[in-house]
Write a structure and sequence with these properties.
Number of helices: 6
Strand content: under 5%
Distance between the termini: 45 Å
Shape: flat
Helix content: 55-70%
C-alpha cells in the first residue's frame, strides 16, 4: 500500500463556503407577480381596458380581472414590447431566491431595469410599426420613444443607436444570467482566442 502524500484525511478543502438559505418571501412575491403578469399578458385584449385609460368602458374581461388588464395596458404603454421580458425576469428572480439567494442583489435588479429600457428603445427603432390598440405608443412604448427618438436618433443615427442599445442590452442580460460576469467575459475571450488559433 502506498503512503499518501498528505496527512490530512479529508479529500476536500478545510474551509466550506457558507450555504445561503432560500429567501422564501422574495420567492413567493416573484412567483405571484410572475404568474399573475404572465396570465394577464396571455389573456390581454385592448377591449378589456376601461376608464380611466380609455374613453369607452371595457367590453371584455381579462382572466386576471380589471387590475390585470390595466396593469398590462400601463406596461404596454410605458415599455412596449419589453413588457414580455418582465415575466421572464420575475421567474428568474424566483429561481435565484430559491437556489442561490446571495445572487439576489440590487445590482442584478438594476440590470433588469436597464435590460427592459434598452429593449424598449431597440423596439422603438422599428418605425414601420405604428401605435395601435395593443401598443398605444408603438412597440417601444413611452420609454423607447423618449430614449431613441428624442435622445439618440439625431445624435447617433440609426446604426449607432442600435449598436449602443444592443451592446447595453446584451451586457445587461449577461449580468442578469451569470454568476460572475468577469469570469464569463474572460471565458469568452479565451474561447475566441482558441477558436482563432
Amino acid at each position: 500500500m502506498s503512503k499518501s502524500e498528505t496527512s490530512n484525511p479529508n479529500s476536500g478543502p478545510s474551509f466550506q463556503a457558507p450555504r445561503y438559505r432560500p429567501n422564501w418571501l422574495a420567492a413567493l412575491g416573484c412567483f405571484f407577480a410572475g404568474a399573475y403578469l404572465t396570465v394577464a399578458l396571455f389573456s390581454y385584449e385592448a377591449a378589456q381596458v376601461g376608464s380611466p385609460f380609455r374613453a369607452t368602458g371595457a367590453t371584455a374581461k381579462n382572466m386576471m380581472g380589471w387590475i390585470g388588464a390595466d396593469t398590462v395596458w400601463v406596461l404596454l404603454y410605458a415599455l412596449g414590447a419589453s413588457t414580455w421580458l418582465v415575466p421572464f425576469l420575475l421567474i428568474w428572480l424566483l429561481y435565484l431566491a430559491v437556489r442561490s439567494s446571495k445572487h439576489l442583489t440590487t445590482g442584478r435588479m438594476i440590470a433588469m431595469i436597464v435590460a427592459c429600457v434598452s429593449l424598449s428603445a431597440l423596439a422603438a427603432m422599428l418605425e414601420s410599426f405604428k401605435p395601435g390598440d395593443y401598443f398605444p405608443n408603438g412597440p417601444g412604448g413611452l420609454v423607447g420613444v423618449m430614449l431613441y427618438r428624442r435622445l439618440l436618433a439625431d445624435a447617433l443615427g440609426a446604426f449607432g443607436s442600435g449598436l449602443l442599445l444592443g451592446t447595453v442590452y446584451c451586457f445587461a442580460l449577461l449580468f442578469i444570467f451569470t454568476k460572475d460576469i468577469g469570469a464569463e467575459v474572460e471565458k469568452i475571450v479565451m474561447n475566441f482566442g482558441a477558436w482563432r488559433a
